[in-house]
Every structure is written in structure tokens, then in C-alpha cells.
Amino acid sequence: MRAMVMEKFGAPLTLKDMPMPKIGPNDALVRVRVCGAGLTVVIMIATPGRIKSFPRIPGHEIAGEVVEVGSEVRTIRAGQRVTNHFYLTCGNCRYCRSGRETLCENFRGNVGNGCDGGYAEYVALPERNLVPIPDGVTDLEAAVASDAIATPYHACHAEAQISPGDDVLIIGAGGGVGVHMVQMARLCGARVIAAEIGEEKLELARTMGADEIIDARRGDIVKQVMALTNGRGVDASIDIVGNSKTLQASLEALAPAGRMVIIGSKPASVYGEDPTFKVNPQEFMRQAQEIHGSRYVNNSEIARTLEMLKHRRIKAVVGKTFPLEEAEQVHELLRKNAIAGRAALIVQ
Fold first, then answer.
1. pLDDT per residue over 270-293, tens digit each?
2. What are the E-state strand segments in the chain?
């Protein structure tokens, strides 16, 4: 099969002919049709120690068709279209059994670093990682949904706990996760304040439903938020950028009882800056505020997200698609923050 392969740490991805994956009794072989591409992959392959063995095929937002199942597989069948959960978990610990599998006590890494991923024509994945794609949802939509839309679902519903009438700040609102966060917050009934840089991303955030736009290049984010909320602040802030400046702004923009949600952060080893921020514990306690770390989703949330797509409650926003062999070019565009919405590789 054709695959984009990383031969060693720091090496560029190259197109190679690789052996077909072998499946175990609890696995399924999936013919990949689409694989999403976002900063998670870029950061993963650039962070020392994240990939334990080489060569490695990255890519975790997969949609395709099951072509073979292992002898113990009972819930997935050949011919079925599926997407995937990208954490490799045990399914049996206290966290997996309570629907918080992202905190698995026996975590084995992610699809694309703990095992080969979807930048290939075929991938072998555990049965527990597969989620059926309903009729009416395309492979492209499903691939994006498995992370870039499901993550906003979890962040808005479980972490930010958005209610109708809330003011919500989204920092990084024009990227692959951000454009879907804007839509999801609107679905929850929020007035959305979208912060971004770059005209294309600002306009995309507005098009996808943002009520107010903040150009972070044109002044302090917190001051602009306060001007838009009569000095009160927001009920929830959701930070997708995750550097020290945006995290500090997310915290300082909160109203009393506000909830700050951190979606991700850029490691210092990759981006060369310390992503920490300062909290005044007395003020934080006085205001009864909260900080939430939002770590991906569970399988049920992926299934719910797919149903939302099926019923057209949300739109999968894909800025550009590319053939498999252009994965390295896609990563370079992502490093330059040059893609509005999600990017995806069309494999077959």
C-alpha cells in the first residue's frame, strides 16, 4: 500500500510502498478514504519522545470502509463505513468504564504515534476505536467530525457548560477546530465573540456564526472583550491557541463564575516559548471562577457529533483538500497558520 512515512524523528514525510497492516482478533482493517490534517499531527511528529518507534505513519482523523475484521470483533462488519477515536485505551479501567477514556490508566498513545495512522491506503485499528458513519454523512465530513467537530462538542457541552444567553470568547476561532467551536457555541445558545488574526480566518469565523469579531492584531483582547460586554467579561472562554498570551487573556476576560477551557497548548520544545500563565488565587477564589482542561472526547460524543452532521445542525468546514502525497506541504501550511478551516488528505 501507499503511505506517507516518517523514517526517523525530524525527517520529512515521504511517500513509500509499505506492507499491508496485519490485524489481530480484536482489530479491523480499514480502507482509508479521507484523513484530516491539523496542528495536532504537526505538533505530535515534532515533539521529542511522542513517537516511540520508527518508521511511523501519522494521521488520526480517519474515515473509510472496513474490509476485514478479526475473529473476536462483534460490533463492526466488513463493508461498513467508519471513523475513529484516536486514543489507544484499555476499555477496562475506572476512567474507560465511566466514559472518560482519554484519562485511561493504561494509555498506549494515539493513532499515528502509538500505532500507524491514516496517512495511508489502509490502517488497522482496534474495534473499540471505531465509530460507524451514518447514512447522509460523507467520508470527508466524518473524518473532520472525529476530532475537529467532536472536540468542540465536548468543550462546549461538558467543560464550558454553555447555556442560552451566555457570552463566550473563542480564541483561535478561524482554524480547523475554531470554526466548529463557533458553530457549536451558537448551537448551545451563546453570543459568540471570536478572536483571530488574518482576514481570511476572521471572515470565516463571522460567516460561521460569530456575533462579534476581535482582531487580535489590533489591540488587547481583554480590553476588546470588556468593551463588548459592558465591562462584565464572558461567561466562558475557550482557548484553542494555547500560548502564554492567549491563556492569560482567556483568564482575564472571564466574568464572575466564568469558566476557562483550555483545548490545547503549544509545547515549548516545539514553539520555543513557555505556555504558562499566572493565576491570582485570591481573586480567582473571590470570583468563583473555574479552569477546565478539555482532553478530546469519548466515543459517544463522536457518535452524537455524526448525528448532528446527519441532521445538518452543524457544517464541516474544510478549507482545502490535498492528495495523500502532499501531506508534507499541508503540514508546512499549518505551521504557517495559512489554512482557514480544516485541511484533509483525500486518499482514494
1. 667 788 899 999 999 999 999 999
2. 2-5, 14-17, 27-37, 61-69, 81-84, 122-126, 130-132, 167-171, 191-196, 212-215, 234-239, 254-262, 290-293, 318-323, 342-346
